Amino acid sequence: MMQKSPGGQSETNFWHTTQGPLMMLAPMEDVTDTAFRELILRSSAPGHLHILFTEFTSTDGLGHPVGREKVSYRLKVSDGERELLQKNGVKLIAQIWGNKPEKFAEAVQHITENYAFDGIDINMGCPVKNVVAHGSCSALINQEPLAHEIIAASRAATHLPISVKTRMGLKKVDTERWMTFLLKQPLDAIILHGRIQKQMSEGIADWKEIAKAVQLRDQLAPDIKIIGNGDVDSINEALEKSEKYGVDGTMIGRGIFKNPWLFQPESKEISLVQRIETLKLHLELFEKCWDNTRHFSILRRFFKIYISDFQGAVDFRHQMMQVNSFDEARNVIKHWNQRLFPKNA
Questions:
Q1: For the chain, does the N or the C end have fewer beta carbons within 10 angstroms?
Q2: Does residue 119 have a pLDDT over 50?
Q3: 345, pLDDT greater than 90
Q4: Is 95 among the annotated ligand-binding positions?
Q5: For the chain, which domains are there?
């Protein structure tokens, strides 16, 4: 069934009409589901966040009627998220992955006909070893003919903008060769992480290589947007890097775990009360969206975001890491609310 456009889809290409520098949250496995995206939208100031992405979704799954049922939850957009996307003018992109051009065509066509995302992003950057061994994502960096077929098949299957998220090499830095190839493809944007696949998340992201990609873009394909990604923890830093390295925008990933209120003016201080209220909101949104259809344990990775940097945080967080249900979590939060704010108990 056709969903209403999550981001207010336009006949024009948002990559070229949205005023930059563009700020966006990276697609992350078991992180950027519709519940967390709604939380981020609620915690962001207008004009500070432009683009969100779904979790990456398998084209093999989407291209098969049975598999489609198993993976379609990754493309879910709640009513609450949809309303905020439209209100704030934020775009939502479906990210997909795989290694078969025909499956990309089927998946992109299915997404285009049955949803209403603002764009499609092809994952050519995930560094996880079993994914790379599958011949997908970062593995495509060394498979130019296959990468070309995948992009061409995706482009032919939709009217939506197409972007690629990638890295600057597989086992070695190969920015010039790989970016020269991508800049000759029918793409609207390239999101470049400043590490090679071999590094995973280790070391420091090389923004000089990202700047090299910008220079190549200026020479070969001025209309393709280049977005930088890697080791950005604040809006100020994102803006500084956009100006210094010439990118059209910045994608923030792990920085959101340090501060889910990141897409706000830097001067705004987040109180302990607000941290706990945001934790409660996340529990509420996750339960409303998924109930018991996704594992409660997924939420544990988020607890450190909200429960840190105050007296008692270690014990509070330890207790939260032991809970296995929404009711248990709320009971622990209630106990700590009474302990931290006895006058309000």
A1: N
A2: yes
A3: no
A4: yes
A5: 14-257 (3.20.20.70), 272-344 (no CATH)
Backbone angles phi, psi at 8, to 5 degrees: 75, 60
Known binder of ligand: residue 165? yes
CA nearest neighbour of 93 among 170, 173, 25? 25
Active site residue 289: no
Q: Is 198 annotated as a binding residue?
A: no
d(CA 82, CA 96): 20
The residue annotated as part of the active site, out of 52, 62, 126, 227, is: 126
Question: If pLDDT is split at 50, 70 and 90, which confidence band does 267 have?
Answer: low
- For the stretch 2-47, pLDDT in tens is 343 344 344 579 999 988 899 999 999 999 999 999 999 999 998 9
58 CB contacts (<8 Å, ≥6 apart)? 67, 71, 96, 97, 98
Find out whether 301 is annotated in a ligand binding site.
Answer: no
CA distance 65 to 70: 9
Cα separations in angstroms, 95 against 71, 160, 247, 273: 12, 12, 21, 35
Read off the tokens for 101. 């051009």
pTM metric for this prediction: 0.93
Residues 6+ apart with CB under 8 A from 248: 20, 21, 22, 189, 225, 226, 227, 242
